[in-house]
Amino acid sequence: MEDQFLEQSLDALIRDHGIYTLLQPIVDIKTSKAFGHEALSRGVPGQVLLRPDQFFKVAFEYNRLTELELLCMRTAVMRFLALNLSGDLFLNISPITLLDLSNRLDQLVHDLEKSGLDASRVVIEISERYHTTDIPTLLNITTKLKRYGFRLAIDDLGTGHSGLKFWSQLQPDFIKIDRHFVDRIDQDYVKQAFVRSMTEISHDLNCQIIAEGVEQEEEARKLEDMGIKRFQGYLFGRPDSIPKVRFRPGRRRLNIREPLSEPIANLARQVEVLSPNSGLTEAETLFREDPHCLSIPVVLNEVPVGILHRQKLLEVFASTYGRSLYEKRDVKSLMQTNPMVVDCNTTIEAVSKLVTADDDYYLRQHFLVTRQGDYLGMANTKSLLRRITDSQIQRARYANPLTQLPGNVPIEEHLKHLIDLSDNFMLMYIDINHFKPFNDTCGYQQGDRLLRWTANLLRQECQDEVFVGHIGGG
Predict the structure, then answer these.
(1) What's the distance, Cα to Cα, between the start and end of the chain in Å?
(2) 5-40 pLDDT, tens per residue?
(3) How far apart are CA 185 and CA 96, in angstroms?
(4) Exposed end of the chain (fewer CB within 10 Å): N or C?
């Protein structure tokens, strides 16, 4: 019965053209502008199959994947042209669909040209998630696509069956690194090693790398340091009907003297959200699909209104008659209605004080982060405390023990970064005249006091964007 219902739902989705397109910007970090957009399909409200993972899975099971993907492509092209967006359109096509279209490529190109979009502005993303054994035929098709002017990208590199072998065979124009390798890459040396090897290969093969799923500024900075210039993710812009570039990186500086002054936005993570009117059974499904998910933000019209906790839901459903009484209720009946909500620009230090000073600390294992009142993401106290500890260790490791200013290592790193920016900058070198006679005459204790006083004076008088360091010992 369920199978028949899913098949009928898929049939309705395709028959009624029940698909609409969101576009997510792919940003060049040098210009802070979108050089392209990826088309992402969603089900029109009122359809049973709304999420892409749902309708693509059902379409695959009922051998209608090609039909559905062609519908998504046509809808995406129409939306892209309607917005008159510049740059390239990235379209996801599975190897299965490409193989099905092997004898209809001419018609595909004709339909595209008829719409007014030149093939040279289209990048075909081939996902590694869809495995095919007929690689020779697939490569023959992609060669024809290149002749027509299309460019190619491998999506989700590192998640499929073929990996580097498929890369060498396809010779794509773009490689999109899977979110797995991007997540917390600034803290993971193994991931850094993998990505560094990818960048070296891509450079030799004249292939551009795009980092997918970038959510944190530290991730973007680390990836940029490793030579990646193009990014996609919530940090730079969400999928939207009218896409916007949200994050425009300013001039970088190394802020080691106040390690807890970074904004809490750097710890916020994008997770699945629910509406207050969503059903509790839907929430249970999300928790079951992700065993590591402990809380789900509840958002209404982009504004956070609560948090639903896994433990609370499971306790209710496990109680006597609990499931019978609650399974038809909505999320707002069980959600925490007074979650901690902080602005994205609040410092980590300030948030840590809010969390630890709260009498309901046990309820604040997760808190919500907003930007101008709109939901941005969710953070947890575990990552907050880890960042505080890491910052303290980093500061102790590289700060001058006397003045607590950044020492030789961070100074060298900061200067190297300024040089790499290929932009003008000013450098001031300060030396205290006659310090040695003063130190010899008045004693080391007075000399140390003078150095600390000078360091504090520079801290007070220099603006935040000015880097102040201490060369050498004392």
Answers:
(1) 79
(2) 888 888 899 999 999 999 999 999 888 889 999 999
(3) 32
(4) N
